[in-house]
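Technical note accompanying the year-one report. For the benefit of new consortium partners, we illustrate the data format agreed upon in the data management plan: each record pairs a sequence with a structure-token string. No post-processing was applied to the example shown here.
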Amino acid sequence: MRVSIFGSSQPKEGSIAYAEAQELGKLLAQRGHVVLTGGYSGTMEAVSHGATEAGGHVIGVTCEDIERWRPLGANAWVMEEWRKKTLIDRLQTLIESCDAALALPGGPGTLTEISLTWNLMIIGSLHRRPLILIGSGWQNVLDQLYRSLDEYVSATQRELVQFAPDGKTAVKLLDSKI
């Protein structure tokens, strides 16, 4: 399977978040999955690092918009770069080219990736696929959404999102879907 990983560009090598993302990449590669990431730093780099070291294939989806905003190229662990012009093109590629998506902790960019993937599945524009959010942060965010805006998020929409406390559990959930 092709598995897109969404996550923050902030974690640095040596941090707990980086190590956890690196382990996730390793676990996915050990199962023969191709890993797609945003291709840059932070958890994108860490997942790429873990997958590459475990003998997996890593595709980094990069774009001109981000590199104009923050000049940097694809991380050293990307084996195949899919370069796009705009951020929207990049998001579309990460979302539409995967068989499953996992989201590590992150900020507005990660939230955008989660929301867009989820909404495209809701409206049937994207075939259903596992969308697994990792860590208590995403569970708290969506629990608040469900509590505050309950009538706007149906049970069938909620069923499209799964939660895992950590990467190892997320991979087990993914394994159960195969």
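Partners are asked to follow this layout when depositing records. DSSP finds eight helices and seven strands in the chain.
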